[in-house]
Amino acid sequence: MHHSRHRPHIGVPAHTAVVRVHAGSRLMFASPDANTVAIVHPKNGSIVWRHLLADNDVLIHSKPLDSEVVASVSFHIPTNSYRIRTWSIASGFIIDDVSVRSDSSSSPCTDDSCTNRIELSTVEISESSPRGGSSPTSLVDLVALLPEGVFVRISRGSVMWKAVLKSSRSTVHISMAVSKSKKTAAVVGHDESGSVVVNLVNLKDGSIDQRILAPAVIVDEKDENACFFQEANKLLIVCNSVSPRNGAVAFEVGSQKLTWIGSSDDDGGYATKVSPKAFVLTTKAKSELVSLSSSEVGDSISSKAIKFSANLPAATRSFAASSDSAENSFALKLDCPERDNTRSGVAEFVDIAAGKSVANWKVDCLTHDRGNILTALLEAGIKDSRPVFRVFLVYQDGTVSLMRQSKAGIVEQWVRDESLAHVVDSAFVDLPDASFHSLENDEMRKIHAIDTENGQTVWTRFLGVDPELKNINVLRTGDVKYPPIVGIFYGKVKVQFETSFDKSKMLNAITGEDFGTDTVPSLADLGNAVGRIIPTSAREDVDNTFVYALVGEDQTIHVYPDSNASRSAFQSVIPSFYYYQASVGESSITGYSVMSDSVKGYIGKEMWSIDLPEGEVIAAFAQKDRSEPVSSIGRVLGSRSVLYKYLNPNLLALVTIRAKLTTSNLYLLLIDTVTGTIFHRSAYLGAGHAADGLESVFVTVVDNSIVLAYYNHGPDAAELLFEPQIDDGDAIVEKKRDGRPRRKGGINSIRNTAPNVKGYEVTVFEMYEMPKPDARIESDMYSSFSGYKPSVLSQSYVFPNQITAIGKTVTGAGIATREILFGLTTNQLYGLNKRFLDPRRIYGTPSAEDKEEQLFPYRPALDFNPKDVASHVLEVAGIQKIISTPSSLESTSIVVAYGLDLFVVRRSPSGTFDMLSEDFGYVMLVCTLVFLVVGIQVAKFYSPHASVMIGATPSLSPIASAVGSKCVCAVDFGSTGFDFAWTLTTLNANPEADVQVYSTWPLAGNGKAPAAVLIRREDGTGTFKSVAFGAEAIDRVCGMSPEGAARRTHVFIHNFRTTLFDQLGAQLQATLQDPVSGITIPALDLISICFTEIKNACIDDANNKGHAIFPRDILWVFTVPLGSIAKTKHLIQAAATKAGLLTPRNADAIRFVVEPIATAAWAMVHPKTRISSILRDGSKFLFVDCGFAASIAAFEMVSRKPMLRSGYRPIPASSEIDDNFLATLKSIFGDLKVSALKRNFPEYMQVISSWERNKRAFDGESDALVFIGSLKANAAAEIEAYNKRSGAEFELDNSNLFVPCRSMRTLFEKTTSFIVGTLQQTVATALPDTQCIILAGQFAESVVLQAEIRKAFEPGIQWVNSVAAGQ
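Now predict its structure.
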């Protein structure tokens, strides 16, 4: 499926006409701005046909000649001639195409004023039959009045004659008409003084029969409609005179008699032609339609006036139009008040023949989103003996609409928005809902927001006429909590290719409304003219607004938006911010750094400058977008070696051109924009633009590649011009007048283009750090001042079509293959996979390594593959720019091509590898899922009664998955302590039987290392450094004074697993706080420090025992709590990576095992356990892990190995074993209040350690007291308060803390009851065939728990107290 959206346009029409054809009517629209001629169907506004002229063929005028032919006049720049074409209205085919060379050596007239200097008319003549017959043959010739006074007659597709209407003084010819006799044509104009001049031209041979200076008629020489012709019995001329009096005057061609129309006062009125037989005369007081008639004998002229009834007061804009046919003739006058608060205007329709007004419409002359009406066009007809009208309106914003009368009133039948045919800038805005807006800024001062998903317009905003919109930039995207905003910059073109900006406006990208704050208004005056808008890497801290640098003509730099936050952000990037100034057509380029200025704020300081050789100017330039991702830093060759890419972010590809007579040379310079160093220069002889006025040089940068497109004029044009020689690729340096060095562009290589080719070429360059594989620049980071030059590879290809624009695809991660996109004059968007534009394409037969690298053999010509046409069968006319942005899929890029048309398409050069195919079997997938759900439910029903075993899983035997690892290290990441064991997998025949348990933790004896760590926060950097771990950390923190300076800079965290996993959810961004020092440490940093200690201890232990082990050799196995598997794994893996347990060579060397399974596996192989002598094959037993969080798993012995029982997963039983006693201790010492901990922390830690050592001594049936520890501070009040609150019987004797056994029985009654109850329910309901219960973990040695187990299950089920896991 092709996801594309296409909007065809014709441009904002300047020349409009209604053409009567056999099938009804058609609309002729011609747009000189868009360079198009089109025929539109008036019923629905659809395009019947259109023609887009070439860029160097500038449309000037167009009009219908009759019901079958439309004529156009354009100026062809390369040949300096006018081209007159005639087109078939029905088909759009060209009938005739005639060139008339201009005699002027100055620039031709191609602007809007030329429209009124061009007249086209037909002359129907009769000639004798070519076969000698008596019947005449009817022919139609075209006569044309062109600018510069050129008058021609075209017959049978060629120029019959050409006349130049010369005079002693400069004369402007503005109108032409053919006489009634068809023998002469009259041309009226005025000289530079305003005197009216009439020339009579003989249509037979083009000779000037008579030149008449009209008596006493002076017109305004700046008035483009000063005079026009009117048809009566004779050919009449009407002029708007300014002397001897103001007013409209009429006179007959060749006569000296003047007839004044209207009143004789100072306001004699102004005449506007609406048809060949009528004009509108407008005065301050009235407006009327006037038609003239002349006597058959003599030169008297009479007028007939039809007064319009709907005359509006002063300050009114009026539009006149007519509709003439053989059956009827009507005129329209549309009056629009110019007051801003008045929108309604009046359209009045007059029947010229009847001499009366027949209808009035109310029309909205001003709309918020369209602006004022600019042009009105009338089509009239008779239906059911009543006149019917259709009015075509053109608005300021480029909208064209048709208004018609219906039973419901005046309705708008259709609308065409042609402003998108004049786009000047565009930008993508990423919205919060993950869709994209493409914002288009056009010449009609209008902003369009278009959804790239469906191609629909989200909103439009017409911003008025003055000044012009020239630039749009994204100030904030939608990936933050604030709305996305864009900045619109107003400006004007100073000279070609250069724009000056003076105002800006911020808009909400979602709604199109003005966006501003108290400190930064929406509309901003930029002060001095801004010549360049440069994005920076800075963002405001508060709302993530992008910061732009606005560079003035004097290199003064303004920060935009103008706020303190923006200036502060910009200040931070000044040391690394460099920019350059270059413009197409200029002969130099200059680089700048930024420095602070006490008066101007910031100013650019010139760092370097390059003057091009004489006659050489900039043709194009491009730099890589720094926001584009780089997926790889090298290119893997077929030999498995790597060519490392040269990825200089400051590299500029500058294309210059030197034209000489009929040929030109093209040069490519690779320049570092920080230092001005020229890394490379190539010359292409005979290359350049295809013709004058036709842009043909394009360049784009893709990753480490540069793609250059140009026109090659062939071998005859490959003229070698003088080139300065450059040594070792450095630039020639000459002194400026001020003594500072100025670099001159040099040359590294002179390369002729393909010698036998005349046409478009594409040359691709690739840059690498070194020419040899596996060699690269010896530096951790790139610096422009290092002076390293790239190794440049290049190759040229013949391109089969004429190019109008070039672009590229962009994806989110840069993984997908890039595609180079070309706009073609065939009105197509063509995509060429970057693999075809590869300078490493081989000559001859590819080797095995070449095939491995998937290199194509080199062919000098690129084939045109219709399957690569991105626009499919659509005609995308006039592509001038191609932009792209990543989509939410890595395989797909959103591409927008615009010029005359707007086209949006999704491109996937590497295929949609992250999408399901169109023929994916969704029905089969749904059926499979239903089948699985039903199967699971059936299995659950039968699982309690099944005793089928499953094989050993990787979770039960992690050593079996240690492929490629030399060592397996199992880590018990416990709640109160850490421990690990390791074994070698490559040296031992039975690694499971040779497990080394680490037992030399400092100050911990042979037990676990307490889960405690002491960390110091480094001043200035904010980083954390491990000081002590385990028992050593407890010992050292107890030796610190709670009030001391050392304690305030340290973090002590202990027994943190429960808090982290249960309370904080094991989130990567979770933090833990030391309540004494108040310092907060990220959980990821804390765990990575612990893992670093374990890693170092494991490697040291192995090395001390004679085994050389490195982190890359180890497979790490972590035990995780059963109740928080998903929450734990991602945090442990991230911490292991940060701690260096996982390296790029063993990134996947980590496994996770739930605690009951890990305990069971350990108990089976531990030499001190009695389980192997108790259990036999077929024995069914439950394994209860009585650690800090208890859990249960069911097993059966098969082949002397424990196998998980089918259908029964391990389940969590409790997480409240030691919590009860720890909560008691915390309550005793002030509920962990900071003040209490600062006073009693060493005593508190002593009690915790004593509990770990003495908890096995508690007997639930005894009344004895068990000594816990000695308290140096007086805690009697806290203990007494706790006893009263909880009913406990804790005793304090001379600062010695004792706990009675009966209190422990009460404290742990809930826990033991829960464990025993869960076991009883499991055995009774699911596993009645259980033969043995095995207890493991630290709390398994609790006398209280053992007594409850014995009471509940003996003598039917045997129970065993195994060793604790990890001990």
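The first strand starts at residue 4 and ends at 7.
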